Amino acid sequence: MKSREEECAAYLREKEAYRRCLTQLKNKWETYGRVAGKVVLPEATDEERRLLSGLVGRALTGSPLSFLASDFEKGLQKTRFAPVSLQGVLEIYFGQPLQTQKDRRLAKEKQRAVFWSRLLSKVESRYGPDAAAVCWIQRMRQEKTAGYARLMRLYEEDPGEALRVAQAVADALMRLDFGASGSLARAALPLAVFAAQITGNPHFFDRGTPPGDMLTQAMASLQGVEAPQDAYRWREWMQSIGIVPDTVSSLVHVYGIVLHTPQETHPAFRAFCERHESYVVTLEALGGITAARPLAPAVYIVENEMVFCCLIALLRHKNAALICTSGQPRAAALRLMDLLGVGGYPMYYNGDMDPEGLAIADRLQQRYGQALTLWRMKPQDYEKALSREKVPEERLRKTEHLASPALIAVAKKLKEHRRAAYQENMLEDLLSDIERGEVGR
Description:
Layout lengths: L3 H11 L4 H14 L5 E4 L4 H11 L8 E4 H8 L9 H9 L6 H27 L4 H12 L4 H10 L1 H17 L13 E2 H9 L10 H14 L7 H10 L2 E2 L6 E5 L1 E4 L6 H8 L4 E4 H4 L4 E4 L4 E4 L2 H11 L6 E3 L6 H13 L3 E4 L4 H14 L3 E3 L4 H6 L1 E5 L2 H4 L8 H13 L1 E3 L5 H10 L5
Parallel strand pairs: 3-4, 9-10, 9-11, 11-12
Antiparallel strand pairs: 1-2, 5-7, 5-10, 6-8, 13-14
């Protein structure tokens, strides 16, 4: 036999005109834990007005239609279903128990506490209460640092996956043999091999993935240092603590720059310079290089591969030094530029003048300061190199955080014209500057 609440809910479900009202009553119950406030229905239909007027016992006129939520509950007690619980009716009508926001918050806090307890218990039982991995978990939970935000985002999506990732990071910390002081006492391993040994997935701890970022933050926390932000410094730091990231896929195209090892001029790269040919150097190959010497007074750096190739073809057999970053400079390009900066060789950078290109130029100038000069990247150069490509508003917003005054001036022009300016459109000026030794007139 059906209860009064079930019969009432079935009746209300038959009348679609009650749905908006019941939805508001449910929301108010979940907010306040009781019937409170007003039900307000904008653009009420005639059927809604008729049925609700009959239930609350008075004519509901005006727009929007409104009445006290308590009037609805009182009205139910005058129907054939009385006595009836409005909470019970709403739970049956919507097919789920009603929970206040406070109840939900307390339930979520309880679930999180269970998650942390399970994680801590698993790691403690495996490595002991004084293990570095246990210290990391406790610090995460208490201070909300060292990967906490990343882990909680994973937890909201999938608590089981969050637990698996956190355990894998703990295993990685212990495999690296971090002592209680945070010091590392284990020889280096390639990152892919290291990840595969722990998880079976060689890309599990790649930079930019949740597990990779969590591992970086965990190790930094245990060492008491700030985690590196850019890829180049991340690679250097990882190597210093015993993990060797991929050093082959990071590469840079070079022309007219001789590389030196501690003992000699590197014979392979010297040969390319003698033959007036460009070469590609990987970050791995740069590992043994201690100095870089251009065959010209300055080094010219371009973003675009085709511009690089055209300049080389036109400058062949002349003493010129060029680098191509191929867009966002990778670790190999930054390593080579660091060597040039240490050597005191002036660097001149030219890139596309669109939002992404200006951001790259800005980061490079902030990194190298006076050692790097922006080349042909002034408002007048932008005007001269304009293309027909429109730049949408969402991309233009990327220019709002530029630090360089010169690039801010270009960004202002970019916002006026809403069109990108490309290196290909200033090739003749770039070539002329290099040939005459005049930069960014």
